[in-house]
Amino acid sequence: MTETEIPEDHPRYASLVTRHRIEAGVEQGITSKQGLIAQGRGEAFDYLLGERTIPSADDAARAAAATLLLADRPVISVNGNVAALAPSETVDLAGAVDADLEVNLFNHTDERARRIADHLRDHGASEVKGLAGDGEIPGLDHARGVVDADGIEAADVVVVPLEDGDRAAALDAMGKTEIVVDLNPGSRSPRTADVPIIDNLLRAVPNVTAHARDLADATPAELAGIASSFDSENALDAAEETIRGGSFESRDDAE
Ligand code: ATP
Ligand code: MG
């Protein structure tokens, strides 16, 4: 079945499209097999969250937009899952906040990095970083720590969707302001983030873009107010409470 053959009125349409994109990503050599496992973990948490953007995640998306608009050198890190699931959405976000895109892979191969860069260009990206590999994230072994010197290494704000916990901690130790998108509020990466967005990447990325467009005329003081009033602990707690407190019946009602 191709993506266009999935019936839009299917009750699990979004989930089926997502699976299809990840599977196609593996077939095209842009997503790793590990990425399939990560997707399965994410889906389980999305189910528990009711497959919707909870209010605290929307607040986080707005804080992320404000943080990105205030940044001097924002970079959006793109791995194989991000490239397969939301290439156009990620390119749109980069445009809305004037951020660079950098391919950054946990299981790095030059071949896969090139394919991802091409895939992003096919979806409208003009420049894609991450192929130079002339910088590093200190504290990680070489393969995991390679970045571009004028990309993630020099960035003040990094968006790291679906990032591994160790790398999120190492970026934090470099003093980066980190925006993490992850469906699991217990995972180390969102717990390390300055702005954890506990939401599905497919909903979160366009939502940050929408907030950025809405905030396009805000003053720096207004943006700073939005960013500083966001509380990451509260956001993680709200997501955890939603997961622990929900019943499957109320989740059905929410749709
Ligand atoms: P760690 O605690 O070291 O961060 P982890 O459990 O997060 O470990 P990984 O498999 O490296 O392990 O991370 C995958 C993460 O990506 C999971 O937390 C999962 O919830 C998240 N994830 C997968 N798909 C999506 C998606 N579509 N949107 C948002 N998050 C996702
Ligand atoms: Mg994680």
TrEMBL record:
Protein known as: 4-phosphopantoate--beta-alanine ligase
Any GO BP annotation: coenzyme A biosynthetic process
Taxonomic placement: Archaea, Methanobacteriati, Methanobacteriota, Stenosarchaea group, Halobacteria
Organism: Halorubrum ejinorense
Enzyme class: ligase
Coiled coil: none
Binding-site residues for ATP, renumbered to this chain: R19, R41, D182, L183, N184, R188, S189, N200, L201
Record family assignment: Belongs to the archaeal phosphopantothenate synthetase family.
Pfam families the UniProt entry points to: PPS_PS (PF02006)
